[in-house]
Structure formats: structure tokens, C-alpha cells
Amino acid sequence: MNPVVTLLLQRIGIGFVLILAISFLLFVGVEMLPGDFARNFLGQSATPEAVANIRRELGLDAPLLTRYLGWLGGLLTGDFGHSWANKASVNLQLFKRLSNTLFLATTAAFFAVPISVGLGMVAVFFRNKLPDHVINILSLAAISMPEFFIGYLIIFFFALVLGIGDGPPIIPSSPTWSFENVQLIFLPVLTLVVVVLAAMMRMTRAAILNIMESAYIETAELKGVNMMTIIRKHAAPNAISPIINVVALNLAYLVVGVIVVEVIFAYPGMGQYFVDAVRVRDMPVVQACGVVFAGVYIILNMLADVGAILANPRLMHPK
Amino acid sequence: MSVFVFGYFFMLLAGSSLAVYYKRNEVLGVLFTVTLLSMLFGILWGTVAFWTIAIIAIGLIAAGALGYCFRAYMVMILPEYASRFMKSAPLTASFGLLVIIVMIVLAVFADLVAPFGEREIVGDVWEPAGGAYLLGTDNLGRDMFSRLVYGAQTTMAVALAAGVLSFSIGMLLSFTAAVSGGWIDQVLSRFNDLLLAIPTLIFALVVLAALPQNIFILIGVMAVIDQTRVFRLGRALAIDIVVQDFVEAARLRGEGWFWIIFREILPNVLTPLIAEFGLRFVFAILFLSSLSFLGLGIQPPEADWGGMVKDNKDGIIFLVPAALYPGAAIAILAVCVNMVVDWLLNRTASLKGGRG
């Protein structure tokens, strides 16, 4: 078999094993922590009888491993169980909110990826000159700012300049791509773009710089090949794979960054759902959201690996 | 045309011309870019744009001057070895160090510095800055500046505790893994890989949902999650050292793993580890603030920077900037620590050499 195919299958296999291991950790590991779910959930009104009652009602009296296997079986068939707080099925809420979140994240990625890769290339092109320094300082500042500060700065700025004083943004009725919908979620998208832009740009710059400083580029420079040819024939084919890697890694980061941004803008996505569930200790919802977020994160990381392998010219032409 | 606008462009053009005369290309680049941008912004927004740019410029110059003087001052008062070290600091790092020290002093002497109490309601809701209240009042009428100072105490203490704890765990585990090798290394590394695969915020949220709400548990959770990053770096660094001859010699001499970790490995990886500690501290502050902002970190009425943003966020759309002050405090501290860390990392990189 072609070594690339073997490598790919290996990566995909590792990804699935990871997701499985994480589902185990999030369910069994978390339940083995000190503290009792039923007691936490009841809070002040936790009399022994009430605790015993609620344990029976929520099925917490079954052995841990049985419950884990039942839960895992549910996950594999797309059933995320029932919320403790309102007894409703988690599925309905989860899928509705997941599509909202993906809409927000993909819109942000649509703007962030080209801008950051472009800026990273500009920084390399002007390496150690003024534009590079300016980009460097600005991105360091952006990385150091917490997401909520960036979000409120943007809201403050827009409230100041445009005088929008009428509360949080309106939410699109259906998460589909249209000009009006993107306009509605403009502020959260802008915040997310700023949040991932700096990190993505710095990583792009480092990746390209790494290639431009390698020995074969120096050789080409020294034998007098002109710059455009060097970039086209030597640098670009080698740069694709690290850039794909950087983009996918930052998309994974975006999926996490979306949690805080959704809370800032009261956007009805997965992140908001997750945080609300954590506040009331609604474990089935918490675990479902945790597994979905971790799963998306791992799949994006896996795609980063796969993309990097596929785009690597050395691996595509085995000796 | 006011005198201010006239003076503004005169200064910029005079500076640019001087830069040309003394052949300082970077200075010319900065000044002339600012001149061109000023013309554009001036047409768009009028005099406000000039004031904004002038204030930013004065701030940057003041920061630079502070950093410059602080470096010279430290070189003067520090003993020989430390002063040579300090001399290599770029202006950004020296300014960053100064700000960090000021913030630590403010936090430690919070009781003396703060004009009002942490939970004391002193005025109306969201009073503007100035007068008796340096930065105005918050959503319950408490003095914003006093709460910022007390918040510095809580935020930095919790972040520092989490940082130190995560660092100790991560270093001990990673060095143990590197020294013993074999299956211990395998088990520790694979488990670490597993934890690294889960995004930190998500892991923290799931764990915090299951555990009782308590500041020590918060510190513990932050430390356990963050030690994975320390472990990865520590193991990578230690693996390089373990194979060297002096460690081999120590082993043959019959030293135990305790000696090898603390006397052979640790001194050789100290500088990158200190830099890493700075990064972990920044991460702990940002992470703690995010958790508090989500309402899952430090609980009110205790002041902490993330929670203060959450308390005052509703003022933003009415142009009350109260929520921006604690956010800015977090950002400034994080930028300053990052600048110092950059300097330390560059020092280690330049010791190793390499092209470019």
C-alpha cells in the first residue's frame, strides 16, 4: 500500500481513539471526582431522602461503567440523553445551537483566514523592517487581550461612533449564508476575527520564515535565481503544508474562542448553552457539549495533520 | 486651521526632515507614515484624529522614556552580574518590568493604596471618572479604582498560585519521565497527550460543573490543566540534557534521581523555564479572568478583574466605560509580561546561534 495512505489511515485511527478516550475521561473521570452530582444539583435542599430520590430518578444508582456504556451507545446513535434541569431531550437544543455556532465560526473563518495568511506573508516579505515590526507589536497586543475585552472594546467603539444604543445584536432566524444574516452578526464575527487573527498571523509568519531561512533557499539565492522564481518553485510548494496546518489549528482554536464571544453577545449558540448548563450543574448537557466541542476540536486537528501530509511534496513522492 | 493643527504638522514634518538629514530610515518611515495617515484621518474625522494620534504618540514616548530611565537606574543600583543582565534588556522589556513591579506593589499594599473599601458602597451607580472617584463608580456604586486595586490582589494571587502549582507538578513529572524513561515515560507522556487534546476551557468547564465552588479547587483545576503544557516543554528540554555525558557521569557515580533532576538537569534548563513561567502566568491570568467573566471563577462580592468586567458589562452600550478598566488592566499586565518573556527567550535563542 502507498505509504501516504497508511499514514493517513493511521492519523484518522488515532483521532477516533482520542475521541473515545476523551468521552471516557469526561464521563467516568469526572464522575470519579469527589463530590456528589445529586447533592450538587439539589444545592441547599439536599436532604438524604431527596438525594436518594433524585439519584433513582436520574438513574445515578446504576453502576458507573453501565451508565458510561449506555451513554456512549447513545452518542454513537446520535442520542445525547435528557437534561436534568427541564427533562427535555438534549438533541433538539444541541443541534439547533450547533448550527448557529458553526454559522458564526465559519463566517469568522471566512474573513480571518485570507487576512491573516496575507498579513503573515507581508510580515515575512518586510522581515525586520517597519511593517514587520508594526504587525508584530499589534499582534502581540491582540494576543495579550482577553476575548471579552476585545468584544466590549468593539461594542464601545461602535456605540460611540455609530450611536447604536439598543441592546445586543439581533439574531438571524436561520443560520444560512446571506448578506443580511452576516450583517446581523457583524460584531461577534469581528470580535472572533480579531481574536484568531493575531495568533494565526504570527504562526503563518513563523512557518514561512522557517522555510525562507532553510539551506535550499539560501543555495538558490546564492546561485543567482531571481526572487519570484525562488518563491514559485522552491518556497511555495513547501509552504503549503505548514500553512494548512496553521489554518486548521487556528480553526480549532476558534471553536473554543466562540464560547466567550457567544456569552458577550448573548448569541444563542453551543457556547452559551454550555456555560448555562455548567452554572446549574446540568451534567448531561455539560457532558454532551464537552464531547461535541472536544470532538470538533480533535477532528479539526486531525484535518490539520491530514492536510499537511497531503500537501507535503516529500511524502507524495516516496523514494 | 488652529494653532494645534499647524504645530502638529510642523512637528511631524520637522521630525521627518531631521530623520532624512541624519539618514535614520526607520524614524523617517514612522514619522512620514504618520504624517500621510494624519492627512487622511484629518479629512475623515477632523481635529479629533490629530488629538488621538498626538495622545498615543506622547504616551508611547513617555513609555519609552520611562523604560530607558528605569533600565539605567536598575543598571546603576543592581550588583555587578545582575546589572550586566539588565543592560541587555530592550526598552519594551524594561518598561514591562517596571509596570509589573508597580502592579505588584499596588496589589501587595492594596489596603494602603485604595481610597475606599473593597465592598463599600460610596456613591451613585456608574458615576463618571474624576472628583472623589478616580475612575468613577461601578454598577453598585462602589469605587472603581479601589476595586481595581483589590482585584489586582485577588487576580494576581490566584494566578500566581495556579502558575506555581502547575509549574511544580509539570516540571517534576516531566523530569521524572525523562530521567526514568521506559514505561513510566510512556504512561506519563501518553496521558499528557490525551489531556492536551482537550481544549483547556472546555475541560475546565466540565470539571468545574462537577466540583463544589471553592477558590482552592479553582486553583487546583487551573494547575492540573495547565501543567500539561509545562510537561511538554519540560520533557523536551530534559530529554536533550539526560543523554549528555555529565548526566551519565552522575549516574555512574551512583547519584539518585533526586540529585540528577535538581543538580544536573534543572540548572541547565533554567532560563527557558523562567520564560515559560512568565507565559504560564499570563495564561493563568487570562484563563482565570475568562472563567470569572463566565461567572464560574471567583465569586462576588470579592473583586477580581474578570468578574468586574462581567458586573459592569451592561454599562457599555450606554457609553459607561467601567467594564473597560479591568479589561485594560488585564491586557496591560499580559502585554508587559509578554514583553519581558520575549527578551528572555531571545537571550536563550541568541546563545544557541543559528542562521539569521
Short description:
The complex is a heterodimer of chains A (319) and B (356). Chain A is built from 14 helices and no strands.
Q: In words, what does this structure look like?
A:
The complex is a heterodimer of chains A (319) and B (356). With 319 residues, chain A is an all-alpha fold. Chain A contains 14 helices and no strands. The longest helix of chain A has 38 residues, at 227-264. Chain A is globular. Chain B has 356 residues and is mainly alpha-helical. Helices cover 76% and strands 0% of the residues of chain B. Chain B is globular, with a radius of gyration of 25 Å. Residues 351-356 of chain B have low confidence and may be disordered. At the A-B interface, helix 1, helix 6, helix 7, helix 11 and helix 12 of A face helix 2, helix 9, helix 13 and helix 15 of B.
